[in-house]
C-alpha cells in the first residue's frame, strides 16, 4: 500500500462516527482528495473538522474522482458498522473506484477479497483489494531480532482498551518529528494500518505469531529511522485481549514504554465487573513482565482527558496521573505529546546515532 | 471426535520419536488396536513400552484393520516430521483407512482437508478428516464466563516451553481420578487434543480469541466435572509464545496454578540468549498477572526430572524446586502426581459439591 491521493468513504457518518476517516485525515501521509458522505455532500471537511487539510465532501466516488481531476490512487473505507459488515449501499462506489483503476482499502471484518464480484472486477482492472484485517500468510514466530534493530523502540501500553494508545502513538511521532527526530509509527491495528499504509493486525494473527508479527515490522523499518513508536493494544490484565498485549510487549522488545489511560476509567471497558488495578501497579506490572525478554521502563504517561469537563480539570487530572505513575505525563491531544518526547529523550531514546542503548540525550 | 477403537500411524518412529502415539497410548481413552510402524512390524507395543495397554505393531492400515477384526473408528497420525508435513509414504494407509470407513485425525501443519484427493475420498465415504490444528470457525472473544463454571479449575503454567505441562496435566487428572475426584483434562495443543479427542489449539487461534477459546472449552464441560485441569502452553516470559500463555492464564480464570519446570533448564529452549528468571519470581509473576482477572495462587510444583541421572538426584532436585517455589512439588512421571492433587485439595480445589471457592478439603 503506497497511496498518494485517496478518497475516503464515510457515508452518513462523517465526522463523529467515522473514526478511521478522521484518523486518516489527521495523521495519514496520504492526500485526502474527497470524503464520500451522501448526507453532507456539498460541505467541506473543514466545515466539520477545523484542524486538518481541507477537501470536498461528495455524494459518490464518481464525484470524488471528478473533483480530483481523475487523479486518485485508492478508495479507503473510512467507517465500520457494528459487526464490521459491508453495507450494500457502498457497492456502486467500490465498483466505480475499481473501474477507475483505484485500489480499495478496507478494515472491515467482511473481506473484500472474498466477495466474488468485487474480486473478479479488481482482477479485471489490475487493482488490489487490501483487507487490512487479513494478516500476511508468511508471518511466523519471533526470534528475538527486535532487540537488534538500530532504531530505539517506544511502545504505548494501556490500562485498558480504548484509552487512546493509537492517537498517543501518532501524536508522539508528530512531536518527535517536530524536534527533528526521524520517528516512525508502527501500526498494530486496522485503523493504524489504514493511516500508515502498512502494518500487521496483531489481533488477527494466530497467537503463536503475535510477537513474531511485531518483530517482522520492526526489522522491516528499523534501519530507516531513529525512533519507532509501536502502537500498543488492549491491556496486560484484560480478561479477553491480554494475549495481544503480551505478544506486542515481548515482540517489540521496547526500550521505553508510555502508559496510556483514560481519565475516570475505573473498570474494564465492556467488562465492568472487572476493576482496573491501581495505576501505579500497571507501571510495575508492565516493567516486570517485559524484563526477562528486555529490561525496559515506563518513561512517560499519556492521559486521555476527552471526557473531562474543562482545561483546568484536565490539567489537574494529568498532574494526578503523573503523580500516580511517577513519570512525566500529558494529554497528547489536548496539550501535545512534547512532554512525552522530552521524557523519552531524557531516557536516552530517539538519538540519531543509530545505536540502541546509547548515552542519554544523544539528540 | 468420539473414537473408541483406533489405529495409530507411527512409521519408522515408534516409540521414541512418536510423541503423539505414546501420549495416546498412555493417556487416551481410546482403545489402541494397532500401531503402524513398518520398521517394527511383528513386535508388540509392550516390547517397547511396558506400562501401557498392549497392541500389535503392524506394517499397514490393512493389517491393523484385519487384526481388529474390521472394527476400527479412526486412524490417528501419531508422529510429526520436522516442519509438520505429510509424508507421501503414508498416503496408502490414509486412503485405506478412509475406504474402510474410518475418520483420520491429524495434528500436522499440513491440513488433510486441504488435500483435494483425500478430501474427495473422505467425502465419498462419509468420514471426517480431523485437522486438530485448525481452530473452529465460531470462536470469539472471552466474556469472563470461565469465572462462573461450577468445576474448580487448575492450570499448569511453565517456566518455559517443553517442560512437561501436558504430561503433568494428564498425570494430575489420573491421580485425581484415583482419589475419586471427577476430574477432566482440558487440552490446548494438538497432542493434547488428539489424546482427549476434543479441544481448541490455542496457539493457532487468532490472538484476540485466545482467551475466548479457553473459556469456550471450560463452559462446555464445566458442569460435567468437579475439577478441570487446563493444559498450559509456553511461558509468560517467552520471547515468542507469551501471548498464548497469557491468553490461557486469563481465559481460564484458574482457581489454582501448578508451576512446571524442567530440572536444569536455565535458558529459554531454542532462545538460549534469554536466561530464565529465578524460579521464585515465576510464582509472583503468574499470580500478579492473573490477579486483576481472578485472584489465584500457585498451589504446587511439577518438576520434569527426565534428564536427571538417578532417583536420588531427582528427589533432591524436587526438594530444591519445592523450596524455591514455596509449595509442595513432585515429578509427576517419576513419582506420580498425588502430591499435586493433595496440594490442590488443601487449597480447596476439587471438591464434589459443585461449588467454586468452597471450604477447603470438601473432598
TrEMBL record, chains A, B:
Residues 39-135 form the D-glutamate N-acetyltransferase-like N-terminal domain. Coiled coil: none annotated. InterPro entries: DgcN-like (IPR011669), DgcN-like_C (IPR035086), DgcN-like_N (IPR035402), P-loop_NTPase (IPR027417). PANTHER family: DUF1611 DOMAIN-CONTAINING PROTEIN, GLL3100 PROTEIN. Residues 141-341 form the D-glutamate N-acetyltransferase-like C-terminal domain. It holds the Pfam family DUF1611. This is Putative NAD-dependent epimerase/dehydratase family protein. It comes from Halorubrum trapanicum. It comes from the Archaea.
